[in-house]
Amino acid sequence: MTHAHLTSWILALILLFVAISLYNKGNEKGFKIVKMIVRVIYLLILGTGIGMLFSLSSISMLYILKAAVGLWIITLIELILNRKAGNVKSSVLWIQLAIALILVLFLGFKLPLGFDWF
After folding, report:
1. Is 9 exposed, middle or buried (0-12, 13-18, 19+ CB in 10 A)?
2. 12, 39, 44, 91: which one has the fewest Cβ atoms less than 10 Å from its Cβ?
3. Topology versus the membrane, per the UniProt entry (predicted)?
4. CA diameter of the chain
5. pLDDT tens digits, residue range 77-102?
6. Global pTM?
């Protein structure tokens, strides 16, 4: 289930940049379609994440923190896409997204379910 979760995250991030690229090129219909696909990917992320969380024998606060940061990232992606559609500046959201991604990657690789890189 870890691979499905990681693949869903990577796909969501790739589709975020695809959607922004489509909007910048003036393809609003394509932007809306990719935005809807990203929302479906959110469901995969949430489903696999909850499945992994409940498969643990004991849940520590670090897992809860990682889940909260994951929800923060999903919220940021949605806010960035919505602000892009409304032509509103979103540089603060991009900075938050970078910080949250670094934090979630660190927690993901540090915790026992992740890869042992640290």
Report:
1. buried
2. 91
3. Multi-pass membrane protein
4. 49
5. 999 999 999 989 999 999 999 999 99
6. 0.88
